[in-house]
Automatic annotation (TrEMBL):
The lineage of its organism: Bacteria, Pseudomonadati, Pseudomonadota, Gammaproteobacteria, Alteromonadales. Its main location: membrane. It is a multi-pass membrane protein. GO terms for molecular function: transferase activity. This is Sugar transferase. The chain crosses the membrane at residues 148-172. Residues 146-328 form the Bacterial sugar transferase domain. It is found in: Membrane. It holds the Pfam family Bac_transf. NCBIfam families: EPS_sugtrans. Belongs to the bacterial sugar transferase family. Keywords: Membrane, Transferase, Transmembrane, Transmembrane helix. The keyword Phosphoprotein does not apply.
């Protein structure tokens, strides 16, 4: 990642001749072309520059910040961040860029589509205050279709996997003492708690010392538990939660309230994930490797917010197919 930070030059820029550039207009043929540019131009208040620098160090494209001496807007990506804090002349510059063929949009929206996750550290309340931008929240038809697919696919998967479930149940009971199923309170849609159902994969007294983050190589996991976790067999009973309407096939993974209380202190808008039903699988699970730390939770939240904003039946199908791939190769969680 490289930065080219130009001091605020808005006062020295003349906008009188900028209309001449309209004759040289060469707009992008599609959004796809705009998302592949090696350089994007960002305009933000000087005090916001450090926020962008902090999250962009690993980007594979260059961000040029607050350069107001551009003399040709043809095929340029112009992004803005906290534009309400810019001066009138600076905002006029952005309007002129739009008129002259540049691709202009908020930085968060541009990064959202280019990176396929949401930079949650750059979010502010206005991002969430346009419910119509979240079809999964605002369109009843979308919700009904998702529920129909949840019920039909859950029933189908439960029937197809019945032999596997019976073998898993037998193996669990033969290996260790304790209940067959593991029931644990998780926080679901609208912050309502419910009991998630899973095949038990840990020893019976796994949390005798209190709640703990699950670790990839957790010593509390039994031999059978390690296998059914790796293959996601332990998740099959959660389809009962789906049939009960407590979960969806695809959505943010449900978390425990004790951890949510801690995570929301350091992760912006963490509880927004509860605007939708939690899922048996999700975009974070197929996009990010197994993790059990606050940093991992931040990354998974980036994918969860992206999923809620860009939900579609096609995206759900894509996540399901990626889940199958994840199970086959034993990756993620």
């Amino acid at each position: 990642m490289s930065f080219k930070i130009i001091p605020n030059q808005a006062e020295g820029v003349s906008f009188e001749d900028i209309s001449i550039l309209r004759r040289m207009e060469k707009p992008f043929k599609s959004k796809k072309e705009a998302l592949k540019q090696d350089i994007i131009y960002l305009y933000c208040p000087d005090e916001a520059v450090s926020e962008v620098e902090a999250i962009a160090v690993n980007y594979e494209f260059t961000i040029v910040i607050n350069r107001y001496d551009i003399d040709n807007f043809s095929k340029k990506v112009i992004c803005h961040f906290k534009s309400a804090a810019l001066g009138k002349q600076q905002r006029n510059f952005l309007v002129s860029a739009t008129e002259c063929g540049a691709w202009v949009e908020p930085l968060v929206s541009y990064l959202d589509e280019r990176l396929k996750y949401t930079e949650v550290s750059l979010l502010h309340s206005s991002y969430f205050l346009h419910q119509k931008a979240f079809s999964i929240l605002s369109q009843k038809r979308t919700q009904l279709v998702k529920r129909f697919l949840d019920v039909t696919s859950s029933l189908a998967i439960l029937i197809v996997t019945l032999p596997i479930s019976l073998l898993a149940a037998l193996a669990i009971k033969l290996e260790s003492k304790g209940p067959l199923f593991f029931l644990q309170k998780r926080t679901g849609q609208y912050n309502k708690e419910f009991k998630v159902i899973k095949f038990r994969s840990m020893c019976n007294d796994a949390e005798k010392d209190g709640a703990q983050w699950a670790d990839e190589n957790d010593i509390r996991v039994t031999k059978v538990g390690h296998f059914i976790r790796k293959t996601r067999i332990d998740e099959i009973p959660q389809l009962i939660n789906v049939l009960k309407g407590e979960m969806s096939i695809v959505g943010p993974r449900p978390e425990r309230e004790i951890f949510i209380t801690e995570l929301e202190k350091v992760i912006p808008y963490y509880r927004f994930r509860h605007a939708v039903k939690p899922g048996v699988t999700g975009l974070a699970q197929v996009s990010y490797p197994y993790g059990a730390s606050v940093e991992d939770a931040v990354w998974k939240h980036k994918y969860d917010i992206h999923y809620i904003k860009h939900h579609s039946s096609f995206l759900d199908l894509k996540i399901l197919l990626l889940t199958v791939k994840t199970v086959i190769f034993g990756m993620g969680r």
